[in-house]
Design a protein that fits this description.
This protein is of the alpha+beta class. It has helices at about 150-160, 175-185, 185-200, 295-300, 320-330, 335-350, and strands at about 10-15, 20-30, 30-40, 40-45, 50-55, 60, 70, 80, 90-95, 100-110, 115-125, 130-140, 215-225, 230-240, 245-260, 260-270, 275-280, 285-290, 305-310, 310-315. Strand 11 (about 115-125) and strand 12 (about 130-140) form a beta hairpin.
Length: about 375
């Protein structure tokens, strides 16, 4: 197949018997650099950095911004890809486990269509059910958050100290290195790993690319076909707010939504039972509310002037945080919601005022 000046449509099919590509009605818009099998699964890699595979329908993933090479590993279970630097990176590989029926991938993830956030991570896919499990790093481009990031970071850090929360945002150095390499390059990721072997360094010192308003370095996500959104499971690791270091795992919930209005997200972080923050982004507005009344007053005051290109800061109410949490439990964790309601009801029952015993008046006796 030749390359036309303006690109071409690859119409390819792999015959399982001959294992040779033939013309068939599969349209892949771009230059096809690789066509082959991983196990029994036909796979195509395009120059734009997408890898397409035909298992349970047509699946595709963005593995690089631009692809220069792709080779199959010796065991024919992994597709090892190289990006625009021309280097083969085994981390950016599709690996198929035939016995478990799991396809694994590590590298950049295209979760946002608008540039609201960059993402990388490790992905496991249950091939028979197309169930995705992701461990991700998210760089959220929220310029208006900088107006309150110092106050926000100070409160979070102090509360974590008070609560003796010493869990780092990402406690797996190898996993952190893999996610970093996909965003800042393998060389910079390895240099950061060497520097932190002896002493702790904030993540933003690894690269200026990580000096963004909000970096979440450890978020476990799942995909919901029903609701068209990614949702978090477990604790959320917050690395930094700009150049304000946080480095802590905290209870929380996150939802990333793709809507007709564009990319949206909601994030709830519970630093302690008494200190929490809720952020919601939709239609170029970042809304924030907190359990800290003084912080909410700052949001209200600064929202009048905190504007950036295509984004403004707005205050939210407590009810909006409550609505999100109720919806999150209803959609994604109904069993947990039932358990929480039962626990709350039991606690309320225990705190009910017990009836006072009647005083027995003493009687004089002879």
């Amino acid at each position: 197949m030749s390359r036309a000046a303006g690109g071409c449509a690859a119409r390819l099919h792999l015959d399982k018997d001959s294992r040779m590509p033939t013309v068939a009605p599969l349209d892949l818009d771009g230059y096809c650099l690789f066509a082959g099998f991983l196990g029994e699964t036909p796979v195509f890699a395009l120059a734009d950095g997408t890898v397409h595979r035909l298992d349970n329908g047509h699946q595709s993933d963005q593995v690089h911004d631009g692809l220069t090479c792709a080779v199959v590993s010796l065991d024919e279970k992994a597709l090892i890809t190289g990006g625009e630097d021309g280097l083969i990176n085994e981390a950016n590989a599709f690996v198929f486990d035939d016995q478990k029926g799991i396809a694994s991938f590590a590298g950049p993830l295209k979760l946002s269509t608008s540039g609201l956030y960059k993402a990388s991570g490790l992905v496991d896919v249950q091939v028979d059910s197309a169930r995705y499990e992701l461990n991700t790093m998210l760089l959220l481009n929220l310029p208006v958050l900088s107006a309150v990031s110092t106050e926000l970071a100070t409160k979070i850090v102090q509360t974590n100290l008070d609560e003796q929360n010493s869990d780092p945002a990402e406690d797996d150095p190898t996993r952190l290195n893999t996610k970093l390499a996909a965003l800042i390059g393998q060389k910079a990721a390895d240099e950061y790993q060497k520097k932190t072997a002896g002493e702790y360094k904030p993540l933003f010192e690894a690269s200026s690319d990580l000096d963004v308003p909000l970096v979440l370095s450890n978020v476990n996500l799942r995909w919901s076909d029903v609701h068209g959104a990614y949702f978090s499971l477990g604790k959320i690791g917050m690395s930094n707010l700009g150049r304000n270091d946080i480095n802590a795992q905290m209870d929380g919930m996150m939802e990333l939504r793709h809507t007709d209005r564009g990319d949206e997200f909601s994030l709830y972080i519970e630093v302690s039972p008494d200190v929490w923050y809720y952020l919601d982004y939709a239609q170029n507005q970042l809304g924030i509310v907190s359990s800290d009344v003084n912080f909410n007053d700052q949001i209200l005051a600064k929202s009048k002037n905190a504007r950036a290109k295509d984004m403004e800061l707005i205050p939210l109410g407590f009810e909006e945080k409550a609505m999100f949490m109720d919806r999150f439990y209803d959609f994604y964790q109904p069993a947990l919601k039932k358990a929480r309601l039962a626990k709350a009801a039991a606690a309320k029952k225990d705190t009910k005022k017990k009836p006072e015993k009647k005083k027995v008046e003493a009687t004089e006796g002879f």
